[in-house]
Write a structure and sequence with these properties.
Blueprint (H helix, E strand, L loop, with lengths): L5 E7 L13 E6 L13 E9 L5 E4 L11 E4 L11 E9 L14 E5 L4 E8 L3 E8 L7 E10 L2 E10 L3 E5 L9 E10 L12 E3 L15 E9 L3 E8 L10 E8 L2 E8 L3 E5 L8 E9 L2 E2 L3 E4 L6 E8 L4 E7 L6 E8 L2 E7 L5 E5 L13 E8 L5 E5 L3 E2 L6 E9 L6 E9 L8 E10 L2 E8 L3 E7 L9 E9 L8 E5 L5 E7 L3 E7 L12 E9 L2 E5 L7 E5 L11 E9 L2 E3 L20 E6 L6 E5 L6 E9 L5 E4 L3 E3 L11 E10 L2 E4 L6 E2 L4 E2 L1 E6 L3 E6 L7 E8 L6 E7 L3 E5 L8 E9 L2 E2 L1 E2 L3 E2 L4 E4 L10 E5 L17 E5 L14 E3 L2 E5 L7 E5 L3 H4 L8 H15 L11 H14 L2 E2 H9 L10 E5 L4 E10 L12 E11 L1 E5 L2 E5 L2 H8 L34 E6 ...
Parallel strand pairs: 1-14, 8-21, 15-29, 31-44, 38-51, 53-61, 63-81, 78-82
Antiparallel strand pairs: 1-2, 2-5, 3-4, 3-6, 6-7, 8-9, 9-12, 10-11, 10-13, 13-14, 15-16, 16-19, 17-18, 17-20, 20-21, 20-22, 23-24, 24-27, 25-26, 25-28, 28-29, 28-30, 31-32, 32-35, 33-34, 33-36, 36-37, 38-39, 39-42, 40-41, 40-43, 43-44, 45-46, 46-49, 47-48, 47-50, 50-51, 50-52, 54-55, 55-58, ...
Amino acid sequence: MANNLIKNLFYASPYSVPPPGVGTTGVTLQTDPAQSPTPAGVTNPVLVIRLRMASSPVVIGISATSGPGTSVKTAIYQPSFPLSATESYMIDIIWVPSGTPPENIDWNSAIASAPVTAAEVMVGSAAFNGTTLDATVTYGASSVAVGAQVNVFALSGGVYVNIGSAQTQGNRLSVPVTTTGFTAPFSFNAQAIIPTSNSGGGAFAPPFSMGPPTVISNYTSVPQAAKTIAAAVYNGKSLSLSWNLDTVAGCVNPDSSLIQVLASNQVVASFKGGPVSANIPLDIYGQSNITVQLSTVANNIGSTPLSFSLITQAPTVTNVVADKTAGKVTANITTTPTGLSARAYLMDGDIVLAGPVAPTSGVVSFSYSTSKYNVEGMVGLSVIASSVSADGTVTGPASKPAILLATAPILQSALLRIDPANNAQWRADIAWNRLPDSAANVTAYTVSVLQETTVIATQTISGTTATLTFAKTAIDTTKTQTIQLFATGITGGNSPAQTLYALFAPPLLASLVTTKGQIGITWTVPATLPAANTLPVSYRAIIASGAATIYRGNETTATRSAIQLAALSIPDTGNLVAMVNISLGPVTLQCDPSMAATCSASPLLTAPIINATTAAATTNIATLNWTAVTGANAIAYNINFTKGNPQTNIPTNAFALTTALTPGALLGYTVRATGTSNGVPVTGPPSNEAWVPTNMANVSTVRFTGSNTTVEWEQVPDAVCYCISVYDNATPANQVYTNTTSATSDSFTITAASGKEYTAYVQPIMKNGTGLAGTSLKLFAPALFLSQQPASAAYPYIYPAQSMSVLGSATTGPTAQAIVLYLPELGAASGALGTTPIEVAPFKIEPSGNTALPYKLTIAADPLAWTFDTTAIRAALQQAYVNFLKNIETPPGGTLAGATPFGISLVQLAIACSLPQTFAEQLYYNFGFSTVSTVGSGYVDLRPGMVLRVAASDYIGIAQSGLPSWINGYAGATILDFEIGSYLSGTNWRTGFDAFLNTLTSQGSLTVSSPAASTGSVQAGLAGAVDLYYPQFIQPFYRLYFPSAISSPWGNGSNLTGSNFTLVAAGKYSSLQSTTVDPSNNPTAYFRGRAIVEVMIKVLVNGSERLVPIGTSLGNLLEQLGLRPASTSPVLKQLRVYRSIIPAITSTTTATALGPQLELCVDWNGLAVYGTGNGLNAMSVPLMPGDQVITNKY
């Protein structure tokens, strides 16, 4: 049976996507029964195929004889493995009864055999033109020669429909495509084919055995095609092309494009472009019948091409004319080939001034003048045109520029000035540029000076320069003058004329200001400047010396200019003159001093020289000084400060500041002279910048001893030296001393006038003048002073003074003055002393009205306090003191709580610091020290801050007969120091002997037994400080009584309180006054054995603490240092004694209160000597607790 029974034979790989129309992979055979009917002898026939190797008898498999997929026309066999592209396979074809076992099939009776291939074919590139797909194919490895078939598909209802197929044995083929009824997108695949006839060895004709097809994907689809041309511009050398893509859904976007240029339908060039645009070189200018064919490309697959005709020739532009009257520029346009439209442009070089404009009846027209341009005055204008397609998308090359000749000649310069040869006339030197047209087209130029419409002077010349002269009287400055220039062509016509304004009145100077580096000039715009002028107005400053111009400034449009002094060659003699030229565009008026009164002036060139600044010490008002300047009329001076307002019109060469400067502030200044020249205000250059010295010198110490004065101050960095001044308190203040020194101290003598106060000031002298006085100090400072009277007139005493006028002298005592002190609350609650003053002259205490310091204590200017005689202890004052303290402890009336022991101690301290006292009284008021006692030889009160020193003695007792007399007895041993201090026991203020024991006692942690006692004054002695803390002895007040006689060291001692240094305790001040050493009268205590007790105080000597017994004088201390003077001595210059007055609060405001220390002036008017031959002098003053003694003050 012939092989034409085969309708379709193909192999589809089970490892690939089934091609369109294939549902089952493997080898599929479809027969055409109409060509080869089944044998009549086979009942219920089924088509069966056997797949075997072509080169060997190996059978691969047999298709099913029954079941699904079997039929009389179709047989399918699915191999168990994919077929190899490099092997040859055959199928045998037979019809058998349905259900025949495969082993019963007689394959010798097969009706036909046909080849099967698994070879692969790929499409390398393709191009679709809408009816045909042109493709190139490549072949994979194969054991037999195969051809290729390319199939084109369209999607219809989601199903691929074959719309064209073609076969080839080569590498190229064209597939006819029927797209009727179908729309894009279009796809294709390719497969290997072998003719089935003659086992593939016959003619290459169907039917074919087909191999597995390639998979349909984006890589085998026709891309989105170009739908329309957006723009195609050909400039004669290259083509710029862009297009719009179609918008078919599902189409692949292109990745490139193919542009083909055809001449008379023949491709002459091909180019690759982008997806939506291309720029290609193309040299086909002037050729005819040129078309461009565009096809988008994706994955080397081209879409249906889009073609258009290319315009390759430029139109001809002729007869370009500028008609100012009609306001048009016109030109004739001729296109080639005819029928095309055109676009014309008015050009300024490469810049488009107007267009595109389409011609009408071959004529194009542009406006003569727009907001963008004005043809008149422009050079190099031209008209160009390009042909365009009817739809405007295709543009051809531009024509050559057709030049427009329509410009006026341009004035290069016109200099107007007084004619050097004749001062009675004007001269105008005028130059211009030739027209840009060919010189052959211009015959002459005419230039004229006009006043309004009247020609004053004119000249016609073939060159480009001319000089016109005319009388000054011909110019009327109230009218408008112009310069007119035009060219005449060879036909006798004139070009557009250039008309420019001329000016014959110069700018008037407004000011001349000279700085260090330049001359600044300002001027006014001439009133005759034409209002209609549109040209730039510029100015140029001129500096002349005599008839010679020595400098021309830069041109400026402002009404000010600056000329660098470094650029001037300033003559040794003669004045400089400044003027200003004015230009209206190229027309310049050269100024001359004869033109107007203030058109010129001479600048001031000299700067003031800054002299040293001075400053008043008492006000810190600085005065600025400088040298005078000459060279102008009405010279005055202006000062510019770096801070604050300037000062102007200062008539002299000095200026005092109105306010004192802040020390350390920065204030710089410059000074410049002002005046007038030729009626023009002129200002000279500023001086070098100077800085007002605001460095200040602070006086640190002033020591005035009545005549000798020492002033010390802080060093000021960069100070050259210092000026020290002393002024009194007169109005105005008088300077009583001044000196200049490079040191930071000065010593001098001043004779003080009665009733005057003196203040010391120090000013640093800097390189630029005198600085400011910082902290100043009065020569006299509040202090403690010693009496000057001899002992025969008054027992030596000490008193406070806040004014030199109250000091005593060698013949009189000090002037009495009330001493007012302020105290905190003295009772357990506010108002403890009531509101009624408590007074025992000279002492009075009363409410102060201040919350923090509610009491005011006054020591009156009473003779009781301020009068001294030879009495060491003024008994009346002492009694008044005791009564006063009793009264504030128990105020009269018995209804007030009164002062607590702590309050009493505060009053004691305040009075001790402030009360005028003899040297002996100092021991009483500060320590309660008295040698007057009915109990023993005296007593001293123990107060916080004292040190109780106990010199205990060991007893030597040798029990042996035959010893010399007095071997046994007391010997020196341990010294015990008990620091007296205050503490609280509950809410009660107490005085204790040891801070640690105080703490234990206040916490109730210490219990001490009372000393054993018998009748009378017999009582057991104590061993140490702890024994003083038995309950009855814990009190705020203590007094140490001295025995009238001391037991002999060889005796056995005594247990009588009256024979020992005995301490007594009291709960109140008034009780303390009635104490005795009798243990039955009040608590007593003494240290057993032969214990010697002293009361010590602490002082500072040159910064080191020292413990001294009370009663130690300053002289005693200096004796230990070998420094005690017997008379006025240089040692006094280095000796200082400072005493605390902290308890004496002199003001409710801390800033105005005295203290915390005052100097004890031991050398006022020299060393006070109270007696001869006994060493009684100022050095005999007793030391007080906390006194600071300095012996090395230099």
